[in-house]
Specification:
- By secondary structure, the chain is an alpha/beta fold.
- The chain has one domain: NAD(P)-binding Rossmann-like Domain (Rossmann fold, 3-Layer(aba) Sandwich).
- The protein is 33% helix and 19% strand.
- The protein is built from eight helices and 15 strands.
- Strands 3-2-1-4-5-7-12 form a seven-stranded parallel beta sheet, with helices on both faces. The chain has a two-stranded parallel ribbon with strand order 6-15.
- Strand 4, helix 2 and strand 5 form a beta-alpha-beta unit.
């Protein structure tokens, strides 16, 4: 999707100021939106008005100004169910309650982890979620609660990588990431951080954005192929072959997002990791 100026200069609240949130805020500001960022740390960019606030403390959210659009990019503060409930259920509810009026659209950064598929089959926006983990169940609960409260677009990214998200690269470089001895494909889905930012901006600004979008690149790939590719690029040790659990993952389609004009700058892991490695 070609970025075009926003004719009505909407007010936008971006909740969460990690690399995704700040990237979305900067892009929307460049398009003419009046952007406020909300986070605990006080991280800021010149293009947006910063506001400190803690989703766990409703008092810190008092006095929020009107927002035409709200984008949630908040990462859970921990790995337990309570942390996910704060990020996806209680936090968004408190934000909407603190606003003087409901926004005309909410965008929630979710995850493809809400799909319980583990047989290598294809998944798209019409597929049932059927989460198999308690944290994913909380995410689905949060999606539903936001849809009930305000017009909402849920964006479900796959595994995000990019600058500052190089854990797999580091493990492969150290020879710590094995491959499956039996060669069973363990399907994985990825997306570069910059393409997630662009997907969230598309979900926020496109007049015809559907209720759900999958943010993934064009090529679901067996995990072992990615590991071997990285080992070759990094001139790292040959990955060890070990017995691994017989899980085969899923393959996600990005057709709904592409139909809005979004085109990934990094269509596969090869272009994306090559850019990260340099």
């Amino acid at each position: 999707m070609t970025e075009t100026a926003l004719a009505d200069s909407p007010s936008v609240l971006v909740v969460g100021a990690g690399d995704l949130g700040l990237g979305v805020a900067a892009t929307l500001a460049r398009l003419g939106a009046r952007v406020t960022t909300l986070n605990r740390s006080g991280r800021r960019i010149d293009e947006a008005t910063p506001r400190r606030g803690d989703l766990a403390d409703p008092r810190s959210l008092e006095g929020l100004g009107r927002a035409d659009l709200v984008v949630f990019t908040t990462a859970p503060p921990g790995r337990d169910t309570a942390a996910y409930r704060l990020a996806y259920v209680d936090g968004p509810r408190r934000i909407l309650a603190a606003l003087p009026a409901l926004p005309r659209r909410v965008v929630l950064t979710s995850t493809t982890g809400v799909y319980g598929v583990d047989d290598g089959s294809w998944v798209d926006v019409e597929s049932p979620t059927e989460p198999t983990r308690s944290r994913a169940e909380v995410v689905v609960e949060g999606e539903s609660a936001l849809r009930d409260a305000a017009p909402t677009v849920v964006v479900r990214p796959a595994g995000i990588y990019g600058p500052g998200r190089a854990r797999l690269i580091e493990r492969v470089h150290a020879g710590e990431e094995p491959v499956a001895a039996d060669g069973t494909p363990r399907w994985t889905n990825r997306i570069h951080r910059d393409d997630v930012v662009r997907a969230l901006v598309t979900a926020t600004t496109h007049a015809d954005a559907p209720p759900t979008l999958l943010a993934v690149d064009d090529e679901p790939t067996p995990r072992d192929d990615v590991i071997r590719y990285l080992a070759e690029r990094l001139e790292a040790p040959e990955p060890a072959s070990i017995d691994v659990p017989a899980t085969t993952g899923k393959r996600c389609r990005n057709g709904a997002l592409r139909r809005l004009g979004w085109i990934p700058r990094y269509p596969t892991y090869r272009e994306g990791y090559a850019d990260v490695i340099g």
